[in-house]
Amino acid sequence: MAKKRIPKMDSDKSMYELFTGEKESKTAESKESFADLLAEEPFTPPPEKESGSNKRTKNIGEVLKNYPAPQKTLDLHGMTQEQAVQQIGWFIQNGRTSRLMTLKIIAGKGLHSRGGKAVLPDLLEHELRLLKQGESVLAFRWDKGNKKSGIIIVYLTDGVIS
Question: Is 60 helix (H, G, I), strand (E, B) or coil?
Fold first, then answer.
């Protein structure tokens, strides 16, 4: 099979002629310069639509209804506070980079913690508040509305970390 080569453009041919094989008709209109055309009618952008009365803004509850069930889970059981902070940051960043919308983080109830007091749920909530201020996290809520559940659902913003 013979390869077709891209034809060379001679200085006396137009792009139209090169690609269609037909001679371009030179009329008086086609000889006008682009600058002349611009000078005739200045461009006026269309008026912007009014924002306000006709456009209703959604509240956070309506927005979160469109989010899917958790798409990925991180389990913090057995981690130290330092390990948990590192894993939470990585998990959120990875979720945003992967364009995930909803994540689940299991902090646990603290049943196996020294002293019987859960440390990770408070730490997790603190870290998510910081990430929310940094606009990585849109919202978060404890599963079943109870911190004692040990599971938090995280809703990510739709922006991607560069």
Answer: helix
